[in-house]
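Input for the complex:
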Amino acid sequence: MALISKEEIRKPENLIYKKTPLLTDKPLSYCPGCGHGTAHRIVMEVLEEMGIQDKTIGIAPVGCSVLAYEFMNIDMQQAAHGRAPAVATAVKRLNPDKFVFTYQGDGDLAAIGTAETIHACNRGENIVIIFINNGIYGMTGGQMAPTTLPGMKSSTSPYGRDVHTMGNPLKITELIAQLPGTIYVTRQAVHTPGNVRKTKKAVRKAFENQKLNKGLSFVEIVSNCNSGWKMAPVKSNEWMVENMFPYYPLGDIKVNED
Amino acid sequence: MTEEIIIAGFGGQGVLSMGKILAYSGVMENKEVSWMPSYGPEMRGGTANVIVIISDERISSPIVNYFDTAIILNQQSMDKFEKTVKPGGVLIYDPNGITRHPERRDINIYTIEAADEASKVGLSKVFNMVVLGGFLKLKPIVQPEYVHKGLEKSLPRRHHALIPENEKAIQKGKEIIKAMHLLN
Amino acid sequence: MKELRLMKGNEAFAEAAIRAGADGYFGYPITPQSEVMEYLMAEKPHERTGMVVLQAESEVAAINMVYGGAACGKRVLTSSSSPGISLKQEGISYIAGAELPCVILNVVRGGPGLGTIQPSQSDYFQSTKGGGHGDYKLIVLAPSSVQEMADFARLGFDLAFKYRNPVLVLSDGAIGQMMEKVELDEQRPRFTEAEIISNTPWATTGKTIDRERNIVTSLDLDSGKQELHNLALQAKYREIEHNETRYEAISCDDAEYLIVAYGTSARLSQKAVDLLRAEGYKVGLLRPITLFPFPSAIIAKLAGQVKGILTVEMSAGQMIEDVRLAVGCRVKVEHFGRMGGIIPSPTEVVEAMHTKIIGG
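Predicted:
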């Protein structure tokens, strides 16, 4: 195969990749190597492809993605820590023709917001929840999260998570899959092109479910936190595959087709 | 005219609804009214009471500590409210279940054997309306046509067939109320 | 044509909210205000107007539902009683910070802690001095009758949207539980989508190509911008003080003594004024209707006329601080109140006036 020159690459007919206009031009504030950027892009591409930018209201959490509204070019609300599913509940109930999603991290969704998560899922709110699980509080500087693995070090478990005194990692996704209100529950990742494609398919399915008024779709994305884990990006992805995936196995957990 | 009334008895005796029907009758006659219940856990099986005020003027306080009339339907309420009747005021009580009868001599005291009478004529569900009838005999502060309208407004539509029975009970109360002690 | 009914304060508030064109109610049961949601659920307002009523999993969730609905430009409300209102404070701070309109009803019960379920006015500080974190103010309306419970549901929405500010209706267990005559307004339609887009262009209604995206947030990590935001909030609060101070002056023209009281205490005090006047004392009653903004100017004016002022509150004395600030040591200001859910009687108020002010 002949090499292609820099000038050739830039020609429109050779363009095979472009940024979706549903992402703003603001540079992402996430650490280099973090999975958030890819996850943001996937959600925005799905909204673009479905042509629902003008009908979508996103709810940002507290955590690393507290500023998600800076990057997502849609109407957004910033919720109090853990309360995004409650906020989204009201937005959707009052605007049943709009598409509503929350974008939450593990501390937000599975610690402080556990009640709101479980009850929104149990009511079967017709919304999409995107759950980024990186097993740590990234924003506040690497403290232990509800999903931190046993023995894993963090700034508040400096000798490793002792499950006898600090509890076990919470498999919230398996937990909410038990609830009749959830229609689609899946766990994905974004560390390889193949996984990115699978995640995008899952997110698309989640929003299609909302379009069909089917109930609550929940997409967990297991992601890395190279800063919080104190690893180089590539190493952090390797560590994630070796340690996170055995505890949080990828794949669909619940798919209700009817 | 301002009439300040306390109605007190057991929860389940229809104390609050008697007050409501009286108050709604007042509304229908275009009077000012207030209905202030005791509320909380004591209502469930324990004592219940409600202050009803009916007036031709704007009602200042819905809560007062002395009453023109006390309607008393159990012993606890007798112990608590006998002393709250204004001198010269009226105390009406059903002697059924009363072990210590009122002792004051500066008020007018009436008895109404509503519980007995209601069960005798098969009107135990409208016991409270017998009592209300007794009160209205002494204090005709609202006219019968407005009591009728008050019943219509207070009772859910599905119970409107029972209005004649309620009115019969009110009439019965007017007949059976008895003076025990009257001031000159 | 207004409709006349005999209703509990809680029920009147709920019915008036429907008629004010509310889009959504989000609440959690607590005595003595559970009738609000019970009434709404029984009324099926969704069939009447399309209004949504939802029982949330907690007060915390309920206030955040209000945040979400308000951020969409909808007329939304919640109600609770003291312990539940404490739980809502974080959300109220966010709503104030994000400048969202909503109505919150507090049917106050005695505290602290689980306290009692009986009426109290011990949440005055929480209501008027902030409540949650940060420098913010709620517009605080204090009803003293069932009629005002109904009126303030609608007035609350109107003020909330006029100023993009949460409105707190500060009631108490007595006003919530008692029945009085109430004249109900006719049904006002809910906002249409077009009205929302034109009246509240900041609302999250979906980003169309003809405008920039709308973001509702209370966050700005840039301290300079956050200070500017705070300055703008303070300017708004000054404007509210200028425009919206409300009070009722009863028998104040010739008054030589004054009672200041709101809500249930104002009702008791009105009777006390009648009793004291019958004794020959020229006593007036100043009833603040807005607690923020507080009617300081009229109290300051009356302080130049009277020999002494008694504040009557069902608390250890909270509003008295604002009365004293307004009076500025020119005349004696004393407090009388009962706590723990006890409602003082009018005769107790008369006695307090004698011992603390007239003879004191």
